[in-house]
Design a protein that fits this description.
Blueprint: H1 2-29, H2 32-61, H3 68-73, H4 81-89, H5 91-113, H6 121-141, H7 171-181, H8 183-195, H9 203-231, H10 242-267, H11 271-294, H12 308-329, H13 346-378, H14 386-406, H15 417-440, H16 446-477, H17 481-491, H18 493-517, E1 520-526, E2 531-534, E3 537-549, E4 552-563, E5 567-569, E6 572-576, E7 584-586, E8 588-592, E9 597-606, E10 612-620, H19 622-640
Antiparallel strand pairs: 1-10, 2-3, 3-4, 4-5, 4-6, 6-7, 8-9, 9-10
Helix pairs in contact: 1-2, 1-6, 2-4, 2-5, 4-5, 5-6, 5-7, 6-8, 7-9, 8-9, 8-11, 9-10, 9-19, 10-11, 10-13, 11-12, 13-14, 14-16, 15-16, 16-17, 16-18, 17-18, 18-19
Amino acid sequence: MSEFGRLVLIFALGLAIYNLIAAAGGGRRLSAPLLASARNGLLGVAVLMTGALATLLLALLTHDFSIRYVAENSSLEMPRIFIFTALWGGQAGSLLFWAWMLSVLGALAVWLHFQAEVRLIPWVMAVISGVQVFFLLVLNFLTNPFEKLPVVLPNGRGLNPLLQDPGMLFHPPLLLSGYVSWSIPFAFAMAALITGRLDREWLPVTRAWAMLAWLIQGAGLIVGGWWAYHVLGWGGYWGWDPVENVALLPWLVGTAFIHSLMVQERRGMLKLWNFGLIIAAFNLSIFGTFIVRSGVLTSVHSFAQSSVGPAFFTFLGISVVASVALVLYRLPVLRAQGDFESLLSREAAFLLNNLLLVGIAFATLWGTVFPLLSEAVRGEKLTVGPPFYNQVNGPLLLALVLLMGVGPLLGWRKTGLRVLLRDLLGPALFGLVVIAGLYAAGIRLAEALLGFWAVAFVAGTVFLEFYRAVRIRRRAMAEGVLTALLRVIGRNRRRYGGYIVHLGILILAVGVIGSNFFKLEREFTVRPGETFSLGRYTLRFEQVGEWTDPGVRNVGAAITLLEPFERELLPYRKFYRNWEQTPASHIEIVTVVPWLEDLYVFLTGWSADGSATVHVFVNPLVPFVWLGAAVALFGGVVAAWPARQARFAPAAVPARGVVAGGD
C-alpha cells in the first residue's frame, strides 16, 4: 500500500502542475480545449486524492505497520472507531485530508460554475491548482503519509489519548475543511482581479462559497470548544490558546466580508475593502495551518516542530505578495461608486461592524504572535494569557453586540435620528426590565448586568423586525402567525436567516456571560466517606478504584452526588500504553436543568492512603453556549440556502469565442 499511495501522490502532483499550466494558458489564449482539459484534470486530481485518502484509511484499518504514519498513530488495541480519527490525527494525515478536501471542493466549484462564470473560471482553476501544487509538494517531499519504515513493527504506538474521543471524529475535519473552504472564494476574487471583471459579477458566487466556509469553520470551532470542555479538564470551552486563536481569525474576517459584501451589492461601495478581506481570510487560513504544523507556538493542539513550517511560511509570503500586487495593479478601478451620506445609515453600520470584527481579529493575532516577536527582539518568549484577550476584546465584542441591535433599524443612505430613537426606545426599555428582574433576583455585578441588558436590547430589536414583517404579511394574506413567519423567512432567507444567526449569537452570549462571571470552582482533597460542597451541590467521596481495558489502565474516583438530587459519579483518568505521561480524562458533567448550569467534576490525583483530589466547577448557563451555536449555524444555513433561480447546473464546455479574459 505504501508504494501505491506514494505513486498516487506523485501522479496527483504532476496532474496539478499540468492543470495550472493548462488553465492559465487557456485563460490567456481563450482556448476551449485547454480549459476543458484543465477542468477534467481538476476532476482527475479529486479522484486521485480520494484514492490516496482511501489507501491511507485502508492501511490504518488493516494495521499496516510497515508505514510510518500507521505505526505512529494507531495500534492493535485502538477501538476501530478511532482509526478514523487517526486518519487526521497526525501531521501527514491531516495535510493529506487538507489536500483531499481542496481537490473535492475545487472540482465541485469548477463543475458547478464552468459555464455560469466563463470569464472567471480559467483563473479560478489556475489559483486552485496552484494551491494544490503547494500541498502536493509538501506531501510528496516533506511529510509523506506513505513513508515506509525500515522494518515492519508488530504493533503501533497508538493515537494521542487526547484525540481518542468522539469529538475528534468531527472537530479536526470540520476545522480543516473550514480552512480549505476559504480557498474557493479567494480563487474567485483573484480571478476577478486578474481579468479585471471587478463589477458585481464575482460577488454572488463568492458569497455562496464564503457562507459555506463560514458555516463549516464555525461548526469546527464550536465542536472544538465542546471537545475542550469535555476532555481537557480545566472547566472551560475557550482558553485563547494559540491554535484556537488562529482558527478564529479567518472566521472573524470572513464574517466581516459576508457583511460588507452587502454594501457593495447595494451601493457599489467597499470594493477594495472586500478584496482585502477575502485575501486576508485565505491567507489567515494558511497562517493558521502554519502555526499548527510548525510547532513554533506551544499548544495542546499543535504538532511538534517539523520541516513543513518553513515551506508554509514561504507559501504564505508568496500568496500575500501576489495578492497585494494584484490589488495594487487594479487599484485605479477599485474606486467606490457611491459615498457615505450619513453616519445614521445601514452602510455606515456595516462599516463599523467590519472595523470591530477586524479589530478583534487584529488584537487576537497580536496576542498570538507576540511571544514570537518578543523572543525575536528580546530573546525572551513572553506569554499572553486570557486576561489580555478578555480586556481588549471584551469591550469590542460588547460594542459588536449592541451594533447588532442598531443596524437592522437603519435604512440605506440615511435614517432620521428621531425615527431611530423611537424604534430603539422599546428594545432599550425591554432590556431595562430584564436587568431589573435580574437585580431583584440578586445579581449585582455591573459587568454582567450590562451584558445581559445588551443581549435583551438586541433581542428586542430582532423580535421587533420579525413582528413587523409577520404583521404586514398577515394583514395582506390573512395567514396564521406560524405560516406567515415561515413565509416571511422563506421569501427573504438572506435577511431573516441573518437575524436567526444574530439570535443564536445572543443565546451564546448569555452562556458566555453566565459561565465567565458566575463560575464557581474549588479543589478538594478528600478521604473515603468525606463530604464536600460547592454552591448548592453536596458530594461524598466513596473510594478510588482501578480497572483495565485493552491497552488502557483506568483509575477513577467513585463519588455520590447527594444534593440537590442523588447520582453516582465516576470521574477517572485513562493511561494508554506508550502514552503513560499523557493520560486522558473522563470528566463527569451533570447538566442541571432547573438552573441551566453544569456541575463539572474532574479527578486531579490520588494517594496510596486512598484519598483523592478532585477539581469541582459549577458553570452557570454553559448549555446556552451549545444551544446558541446550533441556532446560529441553523440561521447560517437558512441565509446561505440558494434561491431557486440561483441554483447552478453543470454545463458543457464553453466555445472558444465565449471565454473572456484580460481587461
